[in-house]
Amino acid sequence: MAEQPVHHTVEHLFRHESGKMLAVLTSLFGLSQVEIAEDIVQETLIAALESWKLKGLPADPRAWLYRAAKNRTIDYLRRERNFRERVAPAIRQEESNPEASHWLDAYFLDTEIEDAQLRMLFAACHPAIPLESQLALMLRTLCGLSTDEIAAAFLLPADSIGKRLYRAKEKIRQEKLSLEVPNGVEILPRLDAVLHAVYLLFNEGYKSASNDAVVRRELCAEALRLGALLARHPLSNLPKTHALLALLCFHSARLDTRLNADGEIVLLEYQDRSCWNRQLIALGYEHFKQSSRGETISAYHLEAAIASYHAAAPSFAQTNWQAIYYCYNLLMKVQPSPIVELNRAIAMGYAEGAKSGIDALSKIEGMSKHYLWHTALGDFYHKAGNKIEALAAYQQALELVTLPAEYKVIQGKIEGCG
């Protein structure tokens, strides 16, 4: 078998299964021994890559991974006295009767995997761990993002993320933090961090900071899966959870149209809306409806509302920009940030005219080094008929953009100025 398809399959499985295996093994070893679980998962994936390159893909790669992980776990436990008393009877039974039921099988049942993942999600958000380290730990362990990818999500150097991960693991080890999930209202302080990690995971998939891919569907799918897992659990089945899931559904519905046949970015204005996934849009509206049963409005509610207006519009020109602008005004009160202010200015420009957009963009502070700000400014100058100012803004954006696919989009805008 060719090496590239094997690498692709292992990477795909790593995204989908590593978090599950890690959660299961951490439930066995304990949160303070998370590095042991990480080593076993990593060794399993390396073994898969080496074996499959020689022998080809097995009939069920996922089952192969779980068997390999269980075997490596048993090998480790046999070597460690600290665990031997706990598992010695099961190991002896297996050695004396090879056909005996494997004692680790119960850990890898689908229901147990889901339960282990939920425990791991909320354990990583222990209040003893700083919030920024909680997010880094979840994205690294349960979501399978690399240190560089996490750094891109936070707009930070990779070594800063490495230090956060180290401090989180040291805190877990020193304070012997457990995998216990808090009950009732005690879950609320942790849920926000869990939802935010799922949100960041989806963002990396929808608009990747990697040079290798613009869209990473496996990350979007994993975020949707984790969001659905949270929505099904009675402790986290809350309006803001459904609001986040609605947002992810609305955005996921557009994934097939975000790139053309050559892998180039297709902007929202030019996407073929007949190819949007109507089932996902319907599911988004269902979760959005469930999110309305509470009395508070989260940032996820407002972002989902904005996404719903885009999903409902028959065309870009028929988009309800007034409603979107209104939602961004509320979002600025709930969760103000330069990016939200940028999107609000863009919505204002479409709702009230190019001049209003230019004025709103000009008032934003701290965005002059961001290519999106210059790109938006160029768009409104172009719409206002001022091609000289538009070209200047696009050229400035071109100097600041880093990803090749986005560089090409801006080049296209420059050519459009003629």
Name the descriptors.
19 helices; mainly alpha; single chain; 418 residues; globular
Explain how this protein is built.
This protein is mostly helical and 418 residues long. It contains 19 helices and no strands. Helix 10 runs antiparallel to helix 11 and helix 18 packs antiparallel against helix 19 (404-417). The chain is globular.
Per-chain topology:
Layout: H1 3-29, H2 34-55, H3 61-79, H4 81-96, H5 110-123, H6 131-141, H7 147-154, H8 158-175, H9 188-206, H10 217-232, H11 239-252, H12 278-291, H13 299-312, H14 321-334, H15 338-352, H16 354-362, H17 371-383, H18 387-400, H19 404-417
Helix pairs in contact: 1-2, 1-3, 1-5, 2-3, 3-4, 6-8, 6-9, 7-8, 9-10, 9-11, 10-11, 11-12, 11-13, 12-13, 13-14, 14-15, 15-16, 16-17, 17-18, 18-19
Number of strands: 0
Q: How does the major sheet shape up?
A: none
Quaternary organisation of the protein chains: single chain
Proportion in β-strands: under 5%
Q: Structural class of the helices, strands and pairings?
A: mainly alpha
Quick structural overview:
With 418 residues, the protein is mainly α.
